[in-house]
Design a protein that fits this description.
CATH class of one domain: Mainly Alpha
Order of helices and strands: HHHEEHHH
Number of helices: 6
Largest sheet: 2 strands, antiparallel
Structural class: mainly alpha
Helix content: 40-55%
CATH architecture of one domain: Orthogonal Bundle
CATH superfamily of one domain: Winged helix-like DNA-binding domain superfamily/Winged helix DNA-binding domain
Strand content: 5-15%
Distance between the termini: 15 Å
Radius of gyration: 18 Å
CATH topology of one domain: Arc Repressor Mutant, subunit A
Length: 146
């Protein structure tokens, strides 16, 4: 399984926002989409699209005008990798048939695996939910092998 490029970019964008906001006193930190683009190397239009999705999901807040910009909508420790992925991709689902209302599989009528996908999806979501944004925004520990 791989994340889409946009989900990956959303994680990169949120970690940059968390690092930026973590350098300032609580509630005062704001960052612009341009600053996030500069820090991440992503194009500004991509960051703007991600900011829109992340804001709609309640992960970022934006304020206009003098002193405006973006900030985390809640503490970085309360935002998980699952939250970020779902903001861009929608509910975590390993198989298309595990998405509620989808009935486009030719094997659906006789599939014995379909009833198990919700449990698999929940396990995956649980694993991603166990990774807080604070962990992603901190330097990686050395000695971890993939």
């Amino acid at each position: 399984m791989r994340l889409s490029s946009m989900a990956d970019y959303a994680v990169v964008t949120m970690t940059a926002a968390a690092r930026h906001c973590g350098r300032h006193a609580a509630g005062e930190a704001r960052v612009s989409a341009q600053q996030l683009a500069d820090e991440t190397g992503l194009p500004v239009p991509t960051v703007q699209k991600l900011v829109s999705k992340l804001s709609a999901a309640g992960l970022l807040k934006s304020a206009r005008g003098l002193g405006g910009g973006l900030k985390l909508a809640r503490p970085a420790a309360a935002i998980s990798l699952a939250d970020i992925v779902e903001a861009v991709e929608g509910p975590i689902a390993m198989a298309p048939c595990s998405v509620h209302g989808r009935h486009d599989c030719t094997l659906e009528a006789d599939c014995t695996v379909r009833p198990h996908w919700p449990q698999v999806d929940a396990a995956l979501r649980g694993a991603l939910a166990g990774v807080p944004l604070t962990q992603l925004a901190s330097p990686a520990a050395s000695g971890i092998s993939a």
